[in-house]
Amino acid sequence: MPRVGEPTRLVAGRYATIRELGRGGMGVVWLAEDRVIGRQVALKELRTTESERVLREARTAGRLNSPNVVGIYDVIVEDGVTYLVMELVEAPTLSEVMTRKSLTEDEVADIGLQTLSALEAAHAAGIVHRDVKPSNIMVLPDGRVKLADFGIARAMDDPGLTATGGIMGSPGYMAPELFAGKQPSPASDLWALGATMFHAIEGRAPFQRDTTAATMHAIMYEEPVLQRTTGPLAATIMALLSQDDAQRITAPQLRERLSDRTRTVRPSTQSERTVVIEPVTTFVAPQTTRDDWDDEKPKSRKKIGIVAGATAAVVVIALAAVFLIKPTTPGNASAQQGPGSSEQPASQTSSTASSAPSSSSAAPSSSSQAPSSSQGPKPTQSQPNQPQPTTTQPKPPRETLVLTRYLKSGGFHYSGTSRVPAPAGFQAEAHSLGKLLAKEEPGTKPLYACRINGSEDHMTSVSPTCEGQTVLSATPLGHVFKDKPGDVPTLPLYRCIFKGTHFDSLDSKCEGYQQEWQFGWVVG
After folding, report:
1. pTM exceeding the 0.90 threshold for the entire prediction
2. Where are the domains of the chain?
3. CATH number of 9-87
4. Catalytic residue among 110, 131, 189, 291
5. 337-388, pLDDT tens digit by residue?
6. Is residue 79 annotated as part of the catalytic site, yes or no?
7. What's the CA gap between 10 and 27, in Å, rounded?
8. Where is this region: Disordered (predicted)?
């Protein structure tokens, strides 16, 4: 480990590394000295074989001229390693600021407005940032804000924008349309800014969940709830987080809204920031090997050196999920064999299913609750000058479809209805998973049958695109209630995971395994 201030190596005969400031998924950031002009810079050593792509992106980002963008000075390819020479910004990130204090609405609006200025400069140059998040926003002691890390930014007309088949960015700050296959756009950058402002004012990320898959699901199908703020700022943040990118607030509209707030508050907030944010030496000095710029790990954040170009988290989203091997009844098979073994006879399949926790057996039957017309009250004799009593027609029963869980030799599971029967080789388990509504109605959402790409495994999804997997049928299996209704007995339906394989269950504890999320409510 070199001593502080001691150069370790010379890059391009010019940039002498002094010490490591941080590292992440894309590489290492060094504090370095430019020996030609005698200034300190941030030297980003990138772990990539795509040097041409990095050069192209750096040239694109280098065109930006904004006081709110961290500058790129030089790009170097030496001995097969690509380096970015960047402006050194000695300041905490917004993520670090949030751990030290609660931000006011005016402060969040000011940070949002300055970040918007950086994005407007990028978008005007035809660039999308693709990784706007708190750890990529630097907050200087004088209140200025700089947007860092254009490391995965791309020109909007780049034909290779989605050619790799992956999705790059930090899942909790990626707009819903990106998961549906749309290209990154200024609108998706603005959505990420909205998620960042939500995090700044609430102290929590709007869609952060325990797994990447659950985070994606929340972004695509759930609406975040603001608790600390109301009024114009809350309305602005929710307008940015619109799931429909066509309905999302635009940059000029956002600037108008935020300018109205910050026009009278920025002079007073500058002195406040100078007091609250500690001197930059507090943040630059520590050395670490953790990727503390990754907002996917909010529970354990160390204070690390922050420089321009903080390493972006690169996430290739691939929900290749398979169904759980259901546990066998103790004594029927060894733990090593596991449920769903190819040696398990059909009679044991039924026994296995009945041994699992089953909420449906205790649930009241919807048919038993339906009133019978023959048991209706007899009409009473009307009295003079009294209105004739009216009779209320019972609500017709809903048409439902039984949702059955199937098991295949090898431990693969499938959940299906009569609309989309089980593929060959699957046998029904003893108990059902309740009933789906046959027809869509307000407050419901569809369930689809999916097959994992390149696998025999299947899963159930609320996404008509099966979250990027193979759609078995465009016709949904049926519909679930989004919220628990009051007019019909219902049971919660969950998607669960066990060692990377998925299955559906009525048990909130997923029969002893990990819950991914709740689909909704099925008829009991």
Report:
1. no
2. 9-87, 94-154+171-263, 400-523
3. 3.30.200.20
4. 131
5. 333 333 333 333 333 333 333 333 333 333 334 333 444 444 444 444 555 5
6. no
7. 18
8. 330-399
